[in-house]
Amino acid sequence: MAGQVSVPELEDRLQCPICLEVFKEPLMLQCGHSYCKGCLVSLSRHLDSELRCPVCRQEVDSSSPPPNVSLARVIEALQFPGDPEPKVCEHHRNPLSLFCERDQELICGLCGLLGSHRHHRVTPVSTVYSRMKEELAALISDLKQEQKKVDEHIAKLGNNRTRIVNESDIFSWVIRREFQELHHLVDEEKARCLEGLEGHTRGLVASLDMQLEQAQGTLERLVQAERVLEQFSNESHHEFIRKYHSVASR
């Protein structure tokens, strides 16, 4: 069991040094290192000088490297799962097996060796995928925490709303009852004041009616006295003088 190698570890050991994918049609150079046929052809096409092995930097002849039959049989026997339609680089037509950390782009092995990403830090796609999956899981966890907080806040707001509505209903009932009682007291006080005013008015009117009746009687007596005096003024001189003091005093 200690000597067994897991499938992911074995897959890492069977990766092409250029594309970092499992070998496809592996070719062996004179130095003993193997590469995918497509990667080696692309590397030779983009080099103006002699080809040097990217691993050991030994100068090699890339015109007709022999296929690594044993390696190909091992890979075929293991039947590694692969992408049926791998994404390829539009410049080198190699699989996009690397990720440029600086430019945040997917690149192929030749882009990292010869292209504009040559001096940039690159990471295998599988590693970047695992890292981003972990970051995504952390983001999802953060979102769930925020969602939980928002849910709690919504529940709290809902409870506050219900409490405020209930308290408002209670206060409305209390206010209506208090004002009903106030209206009742006001109506009673209004009736008492009106009754007092009417009684006072009746007393004043009765007194004035009595005074008016007395004044009318006095007026009639004065009118009668005036008629008596006017008749007395027509008396003869001797009768006028003789009766004057008696009539005037009366």
From TrEMBL:
Domain RING-type: 16-57
Gene3D superfamilies xref list: Classic Zinc Finger, Zinc/RING finger domain, C3HC4 (zinc finger)
Pfam families: zf-B_box, zf-RING_UBOX
B box-type domain residues: 84-125
Coiled-coil annotated spans: 129-156, 205-235
GO molecular function: zinc ion binding
CDD domains xrefs: RING-HC_TRIM50_like_C-IV
SUPFAM superfamilies assigned to the protein according to its UniProt record, in alphabetical order: B-box zinc-binding domain, RING/U-box
SMART domains: BBOX, RING
Keywords for this protein: Coiled coil, Metal-binding, Zinc, Zinc-finger
Superkingdom of source: Eukaryota
PANTHER family, per the entry: E3 UBIQUITIN-PROTEIN LIGASE TRIM
UniProt record similarity statement: Belongs to the TRIM/RBCC family.
Protein name: E3 ubiquitin-protein ligase TRIM50
Source species: Neovison vison
